[in-house]
Amino acid sequence: MQKTFQTEVSQLLDLVIHSLYSKKEVFLRELISNASDAIDRSRFEGLTDAAQASDSDYTVQIIPNAEANTLTITDNGVGMTAEEVEKNLGTVASSGTKRFLQAVKDKANAPELIGQFGVGFYAAFMVADKVEVLTRRRGAQAVQWSSDGLGTYEIEPADDDTAYGTTIRLHLREDAKEFTDDWRLREIIRTYSDYIAYPIMLCPDPSVKPEPKKDADGKELPPEERVPEQVNSMKAIWKRPKSEVKPEESNAFYKHIAHDSEDPLSTIHISAEGATEFQALLFIPRTAPYDLYFANAKQGLQLYVRNVFIGDDIRELLPRYLCFMRGVVESSDLPLNVSREMLQDNQIIRRIRKTLVSKILSELEDMLKNRPDDFKLFTTQYGRLLKDGCYSDWENSDKLRELVMFPSTKSEDAATLTSLKDYVSRMPEAQKQIYYLSADTFDAARNSPVLEAFRKHGFEVLFFIDPIDEYFAERVREYDGKALRAADRGDLDLDDPEGKNKDKDGKPAETDEDRKFAPLSEYLKKRFEADVKDVRLSKRLTDSACCFVADEYGVSAHMERVMRAFNQPVPKTKRILELNPASPLIEKMLGMVPDASVADDLGDLADVLFGQAQLAEGTPLSDPARFNLLVSRFAAR
Ligand code: ADP
């Protein structure tokens, strides 16, 4: 039956077929990786044939045929049902491939990205103009699939005596003849698939009869017997000396274990000696998985003990904030019968974990220093987890504080970030604290009236845009001996950072200006009694008429929104309304207070003022309709 590929598959195939990618050989890495996964699954499901007595019978066979110009890859893994074939080979199911399509906005980049990403099964069409798949899952009808990659495919039931597993036959293009050459195939397999845990056998095609050789007298010699030959060493890549592992090899290994289609952002090869000996090969994935923050997402590393695979998802090897790391750890110090419970409270595991964390943090320090673009990418993917680490891992908190990044008043856009170290290095002499402003977006922070005085004084303010940032501020509290201080909290006087003008209760002494504006302050305090705790003159504002700030110890407006977003009960906190004595509007309102004939107007102006403070803070207006009406009324005067 003929069927049409999903549009995305056709797009993908079009890119693959027409790409001028020079390392087309990676198609074999992809097909062997799929075969190995299929065997993993078969073992996992405990599907062993009576005939297949032991694991050692699992193989991937590579069968070149130079005469017919075909290459066949066979595995005895799980196989696929007809529905699975349709889904897996007719649609873009893997998230990696979707990402690839998103990344290839510009066709010209396709070749390079194919190599970096790998496009799974469809890579076969780089070298083949026809691909046939014969597959059978235990207990299901065998299926035959074929396509020339040009929009449609054929799918039919196949013979009942088909063996379990999958056979993929590539009819190679004229310019892909090299992939029937034994020597070339050996080279490719050793480069990209050496670590595969099952034997990859290079097999002669039974249908090809080699040319009979003749001896010196012209007599035909008996045909040379060609036997299958295992090509991969199956040697654990993490146990080889670092200097001998080529980046292509470790990248291919990463893609295989992480089921990722991109190269990793960083690779960390560790061979620890001394009290605890172990080897590890760790990777930072370039893109965080979508389910990174879900409790049951795949996390943790693979663990081997003396060549024996212990488990896949061993979370005890790393703290939670490094859950994005992928890779393998092998130790010969642990007992072979190590159980999950044992892992949780094991001295050796603890020591390994400590070394792993310190190596990962050194790698990140190095990335920050020497690969700033990569570090930026890292921060967008995992920066939030590092902030979490700053307070969940006190032992490494100092190192982690060097690695967290924030936008600030010095940033041109939300993506330009600064480290705390750089922030401190820019602090003017008079500035003693590190200031931050929490807001929902970069623009809301940047336009906040609260920043006016900071700008005037040349004090930089960090923007805390991520909901986690405020927790960070609360728990981490300081960097390099300098306190983290909210720009919109407490009564702040940048001219008097050390509080010299405050009395012994920390209250600033009353000034003539305070006394002058007292009638207006009292009026507003009374009018907004339900929402406002205090009204006072501001040291933060230079242009705007007013703003809200939080009490020194109260919950900030941003924190309230965060709590609401997480469905937490939000205590009603009253704000402090700060007025700018230099604002003509405030001056005008002061003059209106004693004049009973303009009482209604004064009330309306006060409500506009209140609305403006709400807007600037990012709080929804209490009464948007009335606010609009008042603004248009005053504008029309
Ligand atoms: P990915 O391997 O990234 O998921 P592929 O396009 O390579 O993407 O393969 C799609 C799916 O097809 C696989 O996830 C797997 O379920 C199935 N598949 C591919 N090759 C085989 C095979 N040899 N045996 C069984 N299933 C396979």
What would you note in describing this structure?
With 637 residues, the chain is α+β, with helices and mostly antiparallel strands. The protein is 36% helix and 18% strand. Helix 10 packs across helix 15. The longest helix has 24 residues, at 347-370. The protein starts with a strand and ends with a helix. The mean pLDDT is 89. The chain binds adenosine-5'-diphosphate. Residues 30, 34-35, 38, 75, 77-80, 88, 93-94, 96, 120-122, 166 line the site of adenosine-5'-diphosphate. Adenosine-5'-diphosphate is lined by residues 30, 34-35, 38, 75, 77-80, 88, 93-94, 96, 120-122, 166.
Average pLDDT rating: 89
Question: Helix tally?
Answer: 20
Shape by Cα distribution: elongated
Helix content: 25-40%
What is the alpha-carbon Rg in Å?
34 Å
Which ions and ligands are bound to the chains? adenosine-5'-diphosphate
Summarize the structure.
The protein is built from 20 helices and 23 strands. With 637 residues, the protein is α+β, with helices and mostly antiparallel strands. It has a 9-stranded mixed β-sheet, covered by helices on one side. A 5-stranded mixed β-sheet has the order 10-11-14-12-13, sandwiched between helices.
